[in-house]
Structure formats: structure tokens, C-alpha cells
Task: inverse folding
């Protein structure tokens, strides 16, 4: 219930709200307003009566109505007292943006914060975090202001990494359901959020950047349950000895054995990736691609080199790129220009247009016995590519795994139109194929 009061808060107090644009409390309050949040917002600042057009209050206790969520942006020494006051007010959850706790050696101050929260049952996100953004509720208690709704929940111990993923999702029109910056995770952690988002109807895939887990057994149990309902993909920092030292200095996380973590992910049905691009690509694929019935790929391209790279990536990912059946090969050869290279991959060559792609896709998608998914590589400025994909996707249950590159301004526009259909587009054939492999 407390996490419900966090993500679906009907009222939010911004403690440390400020009229000064240079202050975090101003940014949070402005984004709460600009994000389209429709609940009650209470700026808390003892030195102001009004901030950004809203009545301000000297303290949480003097707010006349109930408060579901407090977003705390005050100096660290004041935070335990604020949480105590929130608890006495009946606040359900608090997002503590403020840093200055165990990450700089102030373990005692952090322990005081935790004691205050536990006395009153206040759930804490953070401290030392970049906040929370839940787009279904228009709740942007974070920065930057990002509002595009989509299928991806982003949970990150690094605020910057999480925000970067959310910004990509907005820029590409994919969108996200949630961004949660864990920070020092004194209370709400990866296990809580796996359980919450596993049942969140607005979330189709959970993407996580973690530097360590609080409880390995609990993580495995929650991950196993969540991965049975939707995609879960994890990027773990601190894989090397030097990386583990860096994690200790960042959020005082105990990174632990990379081998043990990898084994835990494998046993729990979690997809593990090795860099930020792969984490984002996996989120796009698991959140938007139709689920395949098997591992057999058909690759069609206007770039022979791109087709080769896609084939290499498929084999390295444990996928199959089988030869064309003889009858289908003859049919394709009879209907395509003689200079096309008929095979799998099928190279339509550099003079290909959208109509030629449509012809091939119609013929291949009519053969459900042959392939489980189609990798479509637009390797030139193919105008009308989005119209072909829209038509074909409406008549097939097979995944269309799309890469668009080398197309200049046409590529940018067609990519935008395709992703508006809810179909992800990847910038290279290798990234497209690797992301698809995680959906199996």
C-alpha cells in the first residue's frame, strides 16, 4: 500500500521547495507542475508564502490536508527531523533527494533517518537520489522533465544512467512508465520495485542498473516471479575489482561476486546485459516486440554488409538464419530484379524501394512454416518504409525486427513514423538482432 501511495499519490509535499531556479527544490516543484500532475501539491518552505503560484507552508505539519508523498530537498542534517514530522503527519512515503549520508561517511545520520522512518512506517526512496517519475500519474518528482508514457520501467542506482535511458525513450517516441533512482536504498530497493512493477499494468518490461543487491535470495525470488509476468533486464556495475571499489565510493554498495550475480540472473529468468546501449535496446525489444515462436530469422536488407553483420550477430546470439526453401527461393527470384541476391539474408541491393520490401515481406510472411521473425534492414534512404511496416505488422503475429541506417533525413523521419506505431527501430543490425535475442 505504501508504494501505491508513492506512485499514485493524490497529494505531494515538496519539502525545500524554492523560488530560486538554481535550487533542486525549485526544479522538483516546477516539474511536478509541468509534468501534468493533477493531485494536490504543497510547497514547504518556512520563508515563503507562495512559490510558482502555489500556496507554501512553513512545515509539513501545517498543511491542512492529507499527504501521500513527501519529496525532500533540504540539507542532510535536517532530513531525519523532516521524516519524523512526515511520520507524525501520516505521510505514506518519502523520496529523499538530499545527499550527505553514508556515501560520504555519515552512517550515523543515515541511521537516524532510517529510525525515524521505521518508527512511523514511512517508506523511503533514497537518500542521495534523483527522485521518481511515474508517467501514468504525471508524477515527475525528478529531473529532467520527461512525460512520454511507454512500457518501460527504469530502476537505477545511478540517477544519471536512469535519466539518460528515460530521455532516449522520450526522444525516440518509445516512452517509459517509471523512473526510480534508488540512491543509497536505505529502504525501498530492487526487490520492492520488482514486486511492484511485476503487477503494474502500465509496465511491460523492467530495466535495472544495479551496483549491488540488498538480499540475494529475496532478489532471486522477486526476479523469478517478475520474469514470469514480463521482461526483466539488468545491467550490473562493479564487475571488476576496480569497479567494485568505485561502487563502494558511489552509494556504498557491496557489489559482490559478478559470477554469483550472473548465475542468480540466469536461474531467475533475468536477461543480463553488459552496457547502457544493450540495456536500452533490451527494454525497447522486451517492451514492444511481438513474442516469437522460435529462433529462425529471415533477414531482408538493401545493404549486403548489414545483412552479413546481422547474420553474424544472430549466430553469436544462438539464433538461426536458415537457408530459403527451394520453392520460396524460386518464387522470390522470379519476382525480383535479376541483380537482387536471393538467399537468407536477402539483399535487395542499393536501388531498393519500399515497394520491393513490401513484395518480399508479403511472400515471406505468408510462409509461417519457414521463419519465426523477420529482420528488416533499411540500409538507404527508403521513403515509405513506415507505410510498408504499418501494413505488414497489421497482418502478421510475427515480430518485425527493424534496423534503419545510412538514410540521412529520410531515415530520421521514417524511424520516427515507425516508432510512433509502437515498433522499435535500432540503429545497427547487430543491436537489433541482439535485442531480439533477449525476447526468447
Result:
Amino acid at each position: 500500500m505504501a508504494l501505491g501511495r508513492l506512485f499514485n499519490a493524490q497529494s505531494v509535499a515538496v519539502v525545500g521547495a524554492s523560488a530560486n531556479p538554481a535550487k533542486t527544490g525549485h526544479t522538483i516543484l516546477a516539474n511536478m507542475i509541468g509534468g501534468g500532475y493533477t493531485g494536490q501539491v504543497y510547497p514547504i518552505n518556512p520563508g515563503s508564502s507562495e512559490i510558482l503560484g502555489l500556496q507554501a507552508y512553513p512545515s509539513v505539519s501545517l498543511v491542512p490536508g492529507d499527504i501521500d508523498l513527501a519529496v525532500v530537498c533540504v540539507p542532510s542534517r535536517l532530513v531525519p527531523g523532516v521524516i519524523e514530522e512526515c511520520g507524525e503527519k501520516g505521510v505514506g512515503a518519502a523520496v529523499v533527494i538530499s545527499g550527505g549520508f553514508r556515501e560520504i561517511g555519515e552512517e550515523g545520520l543515515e541511521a537516524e533517518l532510517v529510525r525515524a522512518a521505521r518508527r512511523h512506517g514511512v517508506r523511503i526512496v533514497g537518500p542521495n537520489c534523483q527522485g521518481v517519475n511515474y508517467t501514468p500519474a504525471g508524477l515527475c518528482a525528478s529531473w529532467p522533465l520527461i512525460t512520454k508514457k511507454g512500457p518501460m520501467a527504469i530502476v537505477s542506482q545511478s540517477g544519471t544512467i536512469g535519466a539518460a535511458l528515460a530521455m532516449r525513450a522520450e526522444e525516440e517516441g518509445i516512452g517509459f512508465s517509471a523512473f526510480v533512482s534508488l540512491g543509497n536504498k536505505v529502504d525501498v530497493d530492487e526487490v520492492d520495485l520488482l514486486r511492484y512493477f511485476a503487477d503494474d499494468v502500465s509496465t511491460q518490461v523492467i530495466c535495472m542498473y544495479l551496483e549491488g543487491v540488498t538480499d540475494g535470495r529475496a532478489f532471486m525470488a522477486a526476479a523469478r516471479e517478475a520474469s514470469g509476468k514480463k521482461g526483466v533486464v539488468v545491467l550490473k556495475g562493479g564487475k571488476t575489482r576496480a569497479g567494485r571499489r568505485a561502487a563502494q565510493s558511489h552509494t556504498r554498495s557491496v557489489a559482490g561476486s559478478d559470477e554469483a550475480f550472473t548465475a542468480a540472473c540466469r536461474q531467475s529468468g533475468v536477461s543480463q546485459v553488459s552496457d547502457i546501449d544493450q540495456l536500452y535496446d533490451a527494454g525497447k525489444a522486451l517492451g514492444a516486440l511481438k513474442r516469437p515462436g522460435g529462433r529462425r530469422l529471415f533477414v531482408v536488407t538493401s545493404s549486403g554488409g548489414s545483412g552479413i553483420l546481422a547474420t553474424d550477430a544472430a549466430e553469436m546470439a544462438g539464433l538461426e538464419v536458415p537457408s530459403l526453401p527451394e520453392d520460396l527461393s524460386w518464387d522470390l527470384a522470379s519476382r525480383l530484379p535479376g541483380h537482387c541476391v536471393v538467399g537468407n539474408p536477402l539483399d535487395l541491393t542499393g536501388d531498393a524501394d519500399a515497394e520491393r520490401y513490401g513484395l518480399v515481406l508479403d511472400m515471406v510472411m505468408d510462409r509461417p512454416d519457414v521463419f519465426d521473425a523477420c529482420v528488416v534492414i533499411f540500409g538507404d534512404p527508403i521513403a515509405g518504409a513506415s507505410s510498408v511496416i504499418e501494413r505488414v505488422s497489421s497482418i502478421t503475429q510475427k515480430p518485425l525486427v527493424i534496423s534503419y541506417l545510412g538514410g540521412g533525413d529520410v531515415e530520421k523521419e521514417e524511424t520516427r513514423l515507425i516508432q510512433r506505431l509502437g515498433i522499435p527501430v535500432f540503429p545497427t543490425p547487430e543491436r537489433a538482432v541482439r535485442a531480439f535475442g533477449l525476447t526468447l
Summary: The radius of gyration is 25 Å.
